[in-house]
Design goal:
The structure is a single chain. With 267 residues, this protein is an alpha/beta fold. The protein is 36% helix and 22% strand. Strand 9 and strand 10 form a beta hairpin. Helix 4 runs parallel beside helix 6 and helix 10 runs antiparallel to helix 11.
Length: 267
């Protein structure tokens, strides 16, 4: 089969991919898209110059060489099963799901299917991966976010931590990357990416700060070890969805391009 991608989900990231494909910016055709809300997806597809078809999941898997998940972590296990059983590759945007379901990683390896976990809103994963070929002592990530980006997070709801009405920055979480992804599934896929590139989700420390004066999603990653010291600082402007930064969509578009490009730059 010729290369073609299938997009699962038609939210902020899915739409960014579809727009890029419509403008010839993906380097690969879009075989189709599927979504649990067909009417909303089809309405968006109608705005494109050359829209791909809306397909059910079975048709999408059949027509695609690479499935791109943009629908949320809850779809990842079943999507991985459908893709890998058909011998297709998978790109997971909701990387936190891989911490909850590490068997997906092993399944990809055992079946020889490629599993892509893009950088998303974070930078420096190439340096972290390289550093971890030697001794790494600590990996810490501090995420500072506008209040709107954190509203509705399960950890805040379960622990009755209000963020509405804050008049100053407040730390609302301090724990492991695994705990951060469970408590903030729509916000902290960046910490999952950092942990998988580095020393793992249980040894990677994450702190989350809600800041009522911020307009950007800010991340600071510090890595220390035998190589020396690595620091990364990112300020990501939110998209129309306050939980998703603009850099995230750009990263996914580039990841799709890299997946089909024979030339690879960087680690």
């Amino acid at each position: 089969m010729n290369q073609a991608i299938g997009i699962v989900g038609c939210g902020t990231i899915g739409r960014a991919l579809l727009r890029a494909g419509d403008e010839g910016g993906l380097g690969v055709p879009v075989a189709g898209v599927t979504s649990r809300t067909a009417s909303t997806a089809e309405a968006f597809l109608a705005t494109l110059k050359g829209p791909p078809p809306f397909l059910d999941l079975g048709e999408l898997v059949e027509q695609s060489s690479l499935l791109v998940e943009t629908a949320g972590g809850h779809v990842v296990p079943s999507l991985a099963e459908a893709a890998f059983s058909a011998g297709k590759d998978l790109m997971v945007i909701s990387i936190g799901a891989l911490l909850e379901h590490p068997e997906i990683i092993e399944q990809a390896r055992s079946l020889g299917c490629r599993l892509y976990a893009p950088s998303g809103a974070i930078a420096g994963l190439d340096g972290i991966k390289s550093a971890c070929q030697g001794r790494v002592d600590t990996v810490e990530m501090i995420s500072r976010k506008p209040v709107a980006a954190l509203e509705g997070a399960p950890y805040l709801m379960e622990n009755e931590i209000p963020v509405d009405g804050l008049t100053e920055a407040q730390e609302v979480f301090n724990g492991s990357a695994r705990e951060a992804c469970r408590g903030f599934p729509s916000n902290l896929n960046v910490s999952a990416a950092v942990s998988l590139a580095g020393i793992g989700p249980d040894l990677t420390t994450v702190r989350i700060v809600a800041d009522p004066f911020l307009e950007r999603n800010c991340h600071d990653v510090t890595v220390e070890g035998g190589f020396g010291l690595l620091r990364v600082h990112i300020e990501n402007i939110p998209s129309e969805n306050p939980k998703t930064g603009r850099l995230t969509a750009l990263s996914i578009i580039r990841s799709v391009r890299d997946a089909v490009d024979p030339v690879r730059i960087g680690t």
